[in-house]
UniProtKB/TrEMBL annotation:
It comes from Aminobacter aganoensis. InterPro entries: Tscrpt_reg_Rrf2, WH-like_DNA-bd_sf, WH_DNA-bd_sf. Pfam families: Rrf2 (PF02082). SUPFAM superfamilies: Winged helix' DNA-binding domain (SSF46785). This is Rrf2 family protein.
Length: 137
């Protein structure tokens, strides 16, 4: 099962931009993340729309932060990426009329909702600046 690593990748990239020159091109970011510049631009679009990054044109252009790392939470980045599902596990919908499937789905759904609420709450309490002390150690 494939994991969605966009959140981790974007946090990685935003902190790199801040710690280095304050700017990075899509090509530089793509090389750092082992992906294609088009993928980087696609992921950055949501961050740009939410006002977390800006695209600067020209010979010294690239992506730059539009806000301080202390003003961006992990939840902000998660939401800018379209709030991807936190779980690879899902509910069965093969037999919607089956009372057993409905019961299992209701119980698992409550557990998933509770877990997602707890995780997103934690995301909202962690800024990108909070992640830096671990990097500098």
């Amino acid at each position: 099962m494939t994991q969605d690593s966009r959140l981790s990748r974007m946090l990685h990239m935003l902190i790199h931009i801040d710690l280095h020159d304050g700017r990075a091109t899509s090509e530089t970011i793509a090389q750092m993340l082992g992906t294609n510049p088009v993928v980087v631009r696609r992921m950055m679009a949501g961050l740009r729309e939410q006002g977390y990054v800006e695209a600067v044109r020209g010979p010294h252009g690239g992506w730059k932060l539009a806000r301080d790392l202390a003003d961006i939470t992990v939840l902000d980045v998660h939401n800018a990426l379209g709030s991807p599902s936190l779980f690879a596990v899902g509910l069965a919908v093969d037999h919607p009329d089956c009372p057993v499937e409905r019961s299992v789905n209701a119980t698992l759904g409550e557990i998933f909702d509770d877990a997602e609420t707890r995780v997103t709450s934690r995301y909202g309490n962690i800024t990108l600046a909070d992640l830096i002390p671990d990097i500098k150690r």
